[in-house]
Write a structure and sequence with these properties.
By secondary structure, the protein is mainly β. It is about 10% helix and about 35% strand. The protein is built from 6 helices and 18 strands. Strand 14 and strand 15 form a beta hairpin. The protein starts with a helix and ends with a helix.
């Protein structure tokens, strides 16, 4: 068990906190691409206590900027997408995809101090059906070419959910093999995608034997189950530093699942699900259901 001090160190992610600085030094997903279609409405996003708005300008370019107008604090997620940026609905200030103020039509002389406005803006990229941002200092690193991000579109699926617990609790659950014996137990005689024609669940009813291996990307976790009929079932999960994982999943033996856990604040987080198959298209309708 971690101490209260260590728990707070790992779960406090606001600006200026040690963990917040760490997580900001990596690309983090903020929305699924399907949430931001061409011509779609701006999307309010909160990440690590920062209130932002994600939008596509009228050229289709993505921007992630501070949600509250630098003029009077109006919520820009209600703004109008026009003239290459996002226009505040109150006094018409226009912000580009990088957060720079580019028009102040209600100001005397049309506004002559746009360059003095310091409005937040972060770089964004689309990859693997997800929109990512880098909120750290210095030059942004590359987003890793994970298989679940690089596969052909028919073979992958990504979506976002909100979970009412801190980001570390999300990671802890997905890399925890013990809970699968109890939470995901199937009764004898129940078929599953992994059990094929066998009528018994592969995991059995006993907690698995665990072992771990340190890797270049994080930690690999082995769970060896005593299955029915004297067989063994080996389940392998991977913790991907700093807030990702690749558990086995309902895509069967020909694929796996990626997950990413991004703090909203210290009590809630966004969980991103990435389904992936090596050589076959996914049944996306079934997975969404």
């Amino acid at each position: 068990m971690v101490s209260q001090a260590d728990a707070e160190l790992l779960t406090r992610t606001g600006p200026g906190t040690p963990c917040g600085k760490l997580l900001r030094s990596y690309w983090q997903p903020v929305a699924a691409s399907e949430e931001m279609p061409l011509g779609g409405d701006p999307l309010p996003i909160t990440i690590m206590h920062e209130e932002l708005v994600l939008f596509r300008n009228d050229k289709g370019e993505l921007g992630l900027i501070g949600r509250h107008c630098a003029h009077r604090g109006t919520d820009l997620s209600y703004g109008r997408v026009e003239n290459g940026g996002l226009r505040c609905l109150y006094h018409g200030w226009l912000f580009g995809i990088d957060g720079k103020c580019i028009d102040q039509p209600a100001e005397k002389g049309g506004g002559k101090f746009c360059d003095k406005i310091n409005h937040p803006g972060y770089p964004v990229q689309e990859k693997g059906g997800v929109i990512w941002t880098f909120m750290g200092e210095g030059e942004a690193p590359l987003i890793p070419d994970f298989q679940f991000l690089m596969a052909p579109e028919p073979n992958r699926l990504a979506f976002r959910t909100i979970q009412m617990c801190n980001w570390l609790q999300g990671v802890e659950s997905v890399i925890d093999p013990m809970h699968t014996t109890f939470l995901h137990r199937r009764a004898v005689g129940t078929r599953s995608i992994r059990s094929g024609n066998d009528v018994a669940a592969l995991r059995g009813n006993e907690p698995p034997a665990l072992s771990t291996e340190e890797t270049s990307f994080g930690t690999r976790i082995y769970a060896l189950h005593n299955s029915p009929n004297g067989r063994k079932y080996l389940r392998v999960n991977n913790y991907v530093y700093p807030c990702g994982a690749t558990p086995s999943t309902s895509t069967g033996d020909v694929g796996y699942q990626g997950r990413w856990y991004v703090p909203i604040d210290d009590e809630t987080h966004m969980a991103f699900e990435f389904f992936y198959r090596h050589a076959e298209p996914l049944d996306k309708a079934a997975l969404r259901k």
